[in-house]
Amino acid sequence: xxxxxxxLQCIDFNKIVPYNDSATAENDAFLRMDNNTLWALINxxxxxxxxxxxxxxxxxxxxxxxxxxxxxxxxxxxLDPRSRPLYDLKYITFGFAYLQDMVEQxxxxxxxxxxxxxxxxxxxxxxxxxxxxQFIKAVSKTFPLFMVxxxxxxxxxxxxxxxxxxxxxxxxxxxxxxxxNGVHWTAWFIDxxxxxxxxxxxxxxxxxxxxxIQHSNPVIIFIFLVSFCVATIAQSFLYSxxxxxxxxxxxxxxxxxxxxxxxxxxxxxxxxxLPPLVNYFITIPQDHNHTDHSSNQPSSDPEPDVTxxxxxxxxxxxxxKISGSEVTYxxxxxxxxxxxxxxxxxxxSENRAKLGIDSYGIxxxxxxxxxxxxxxxSGSSQVVFVR
Length: 387
Known about the structure:
Layout: H1 2-9, E1 16-19, H2 22-34, E2 40-44, E3 58-61, H3 90-93, H4 96-112, H5 134-139, H6 143-167, H7 170-176, H8 181-209, H9 218-240, H10 246-259, H11 263-269, E4 279-285, E5 291-292, E6 297-298, H12 304-313, E7 318-323, E8 326-332, H13 338-350, H14 352-355, E9 361-363, H15 367-378, E10 382-386
Antiparallel strand pairs: 1-10, 2-3, 2-10, 4-8, 4-9, 5-6, 7-8
């Protein structure tokens, strides 16, 4: 019995801790994250009211490891559904959806005075039948290396042939006879692509009908390989102008061709952890009221009010692209502009109805990480800490 009592003393039954300000809650939250005792932070952004208002704004903040990112698609496209609990269903697995439901149910009960409220049932969207090929998943990461090794010899030989012609002054002789530069490079391209197309045809047939990638369309595979061959020939032409000795060009061209592949696997693995290098992008749904109806085309400034608001905080912001019903702006990423982000997002939230904005999002990093950073440096008013 004494052992059971000692075990119960290790359990903290005080699961909900209220705070009067966000600074204290955030400091405590960071400490609790170190020993994995933080579940979530609920931030109510309408302070100073003794009674619950009909409209309540709050946010649920959790560790970025416990919630999904806001990328539109995965880094590597797969045919299988997003059904992995620890990777694809984080909002359910780690309790974000349940916590949101509890908060919503409590708010409804306070407004209606009813103890029993309708429940909510979550169900994943039906997914069509698909073929799961584990071999493709395994070979897809090494297939680029195989392609580079397959054509590294072709790259070396193209460089050697072109430089040998230059080394023996044959090109100058043909130029004297009236051969133009365009005809010269076109001839070398045709000479190189003919041999490589034969290789691409054989490789396409072997890959598809040899049951390596049996479910792929051989025409698509052939077009992909031919595109790679054209890129290889273009690279070889570039390397050939850097050398005057044929043998040196052959060796150096192959080495450079292979070395330029090496950064790919590292960048591919570090894609999600590399910091943004240039800019942030903010995407805002385009309001149809800002469309030039006389031409049925978006105007050059599709969101004049939104653009003016964004540039009032970040003068260097520019429209990046207009895609359907969305407008994407480029925002400066320099540290001096970080303070303006807080004011910008607060102003966008306050003027959403006036500007006709339903939502907005930031790319180049996880949206949850950006929001956590902005709330950390801005602070809020009334916080309930849940662990």
